[in-house]
Amino acid sequence: MTSRGPLSPVPDDPTAQIVFQPIVDLASWSVVGFEALARFRDGTAPLVRLADAEAAGRREWLELHLIELAVAEAAPLPTGLFITMNASGTTMLHDQLPALLAASDRPWGMELFEGETPADLTMIRELITRLGGQLLVDDAGAAQADEARIATLRPDVVKIDRALFWELRSDPDARARLRPLVAAAREAQASLLVEGVSEPDHVDLAREIGADLAQGFHLGMPTPAPEMANALRELRRSVGVDAPGL
């Protein structure tokens, strides 16, 4: 594994907090996991904060802190459901990551950021397998998250970028761009997860393209873990999605 410098212990960032968005199995119509999403109390957009951290040579530090925070704050979520967390390739290969993930008492997955990475993709796949987690390609169809990356990583889950998903209704070329991503996911025996399911008809569209999993505002808003039980009860009442423990 690689590192650009010692980061232990991971420093606190008092402005950071984690919310969780439900991930729904489209076949069972039930919540099976959550994506951990960073928010910052000063209102800074997560991508802006990450870009600022990268410019300052501190992106790995910030991502490791957010992973540590996500593992800790997931405790109130329903027992046994997985969480997924986002990181760049170099963070995934940092020496400190295994210890942070070992603290999780639930199944977990790591989502590889869609941008360019100098990290060895084969090493990332081997590491996540060795640690017992799932590997996800985030935002497939955006930036460098293409069919070549899917073929190399052979991830457990391929997440289709929400912008591409939304274009399927209006842009004839969108399906042509989606097709090789779906084929690569199936070749890798990966589940297909659609992001951006924000309207009722998006559920039908997700099923039409063969998605196994989905997330988006229609299926649950990003919510702090202590408030998730009430949010899941409301989700069951509004759209009929079930969740364990309710």
Low-pLDDT residue spans = 1-10
Structural class: alpha/beta
> How many strands, which pairing sense, and closed or not: the largest β-sheet?
8 strands, mixed, barrel
Would you state the CATH class? Alpha Beta
H and E string: EEHHEHHEHEHEHHEHEH
CATH architecture: Alpha-Beta Barrel
Care to describe what's here?
It is globular, with a radius of gyration of 17 Å. The protein has an eight-stranded mixed barrel, surrounded by four helices. It has one domain (16-239): Alpha-Beta Barrel (TIM Barrel), CATH 3.20.20. The protein has helices at 46-55, 59-73, 89-92, 97-102, 121-131, 147-153, 162-167, 172-187, 200-208, 228-239; strands at 16-25, 30-40, 82-87, 108-112, 134-140, 157-160, 191-194, 213-214. It is built from ten helices and eight strands. Helix 1 (46-55) crosses helix 2 and helix 6 (147-153) runs parallel beside helix 8 (172-187). By secondary structure, the protein is of the alpha/beta class.
Keywords:
246 residues; alpha/beta; TIM Barrel; eight-stranded mixed beta barrel; 10 helices; 39% helix; disordered N terminus
Please describe the topology of this protein.
Elements: E1 16-25, E2 30-40, H1 46-55, H2 59-73, E3 82-87, H3 89-92, H4 97-102, E4 108-112, H5 121-131, E5 134-140, H6 147-153, E6 157-160, H7 162-167, H8 172-187, E7 191-194, H9 200-208, E8 213-214, H10 228-239
Parallel strand pairs: 2-3, 3-4, 4-5, 5-6, 6-7, 7-8
Antiparallel strand pairs: 1-2, 1-8
Helix pairs in contact: 1-2, 6-8
